[in-house]
Amino acid sequence: METQQLPVVVIGAGPVGLAAAAHLMQQDIEPLVLETGPVAGAAVREWSHVKLFSPWGEVTDPAAEKLLAPTGWVKPDAATYPSGGDWAEQYLQPLAEALGEWVRFGATVTGVSRVGRDRVVDADREAQPYVVHFQYADGREERVTARAVIDASGTWSAPSPAGGSGLPALGEKTAADRITYRVPNLKDPAVRARYAGKRTAVIGSGASAFTALAYLADLAKTDEGAGTKAVWILRRGISGSTFGGGEADELPARGALGLAAKAAVDGGYADAVTGFRTDAIEQDTDGRLVLVSENGRRLEPVDEVIVLTGFRPDLSFLSELRLGLDERLQAPVALAPLIDPNVHSCGTVYPHGHRELSHPEQGIYLVGMKSYGRAPTFLAMTGYEQVRSVAAAIAGDIESADRVELTLPETGVCSGAGLSEIPESDQTAEGGCCAPAPELVRLGAPAPSPAAVAEVPSGGCCGS
What is the pTM of this model? Predict the structure, then answer.
């Protein structure tokens, strides 16, 4: 078969992967989506109880909507905020069903290369199609050839460790039964009991850490949670930007995320420990955990540790490809300067497409959260624009592929879902940025307004 007649393999049936398939079909290119999980949006479903800080109007893709239209699918109110479960059940699952046989579940990609060419061989390399190896849950192995590969597998499966050096802290693996790398679902009675009345260290300074602080503070003011205390471990100090954009954020729910974390600290539900880079996690004589810093500083014992230090891409199955990745972020070289978290928030990332996502190996694209490497500033609408551009480039429509236009909301914390649950009656019809500004709410105390501080997600779930 001629290479141009082969399908394009899309790795991952999450929001961006399924959108990529929809855009490919719009270009009359056959997609083949390979998804490790048993259902669409498997990673999203792991935080199904939490709400995004982006409203429905910003988390559905135009090409996907066109594909769904003949099925009778009705788009939810653009101004309302979905939970992870809503997103998966009301959008991702119907989209996967509309794609039908072009999506295979329980298929884990184990390797990608050029047919007959390992990473070293130059001869006639560009003329060879890609070969993708994958394994089903029952152990069966298959391979498929492809004209191009779009990796939208995300970073959810590879959370960063507690260690300040980027490696697991000494004793971190030994204490694994009392360490989690996700924001716990305190609506689950068993999980709630694990943290109720306990002293818990929260390591991290982003949206996920804000989320955990808010949840624990809320638990602390309930009868069953009396005595619950959070210890917020920050590798840096607290500054004016620590809590994000607040009421200046163009995404009100995102701004509320930082405000609620600040309320947790101000209200005495969490103690902040700054300038602490974890080097070891030891156990005291009672079996509780003691965090030790690089300079030997020891904290008071804690019962549990929540590590929320970000995510990193799994590049292991791409080792036979010639990728051009930034040495710091592990993002495409041309994209990395545009998303550097030391410089950019979600809203200051410039529009980008196939050119910024390209590699020395032509025809391979890392998109979605995975394209950002270790940068935490990703939004769903960014991924949708990425795959629109990439699909056009694969189809040979370079003019369309180069026409990248995207305006992102300015200011504040990125990579996470929202903390402010705005009552349905108060949401306007014009989208998320028109909702009422969030108010500072003391968690666990009577709210001064109808805006309640509530459901929040694990890191990276605002569009990955």
Answer: 0.85
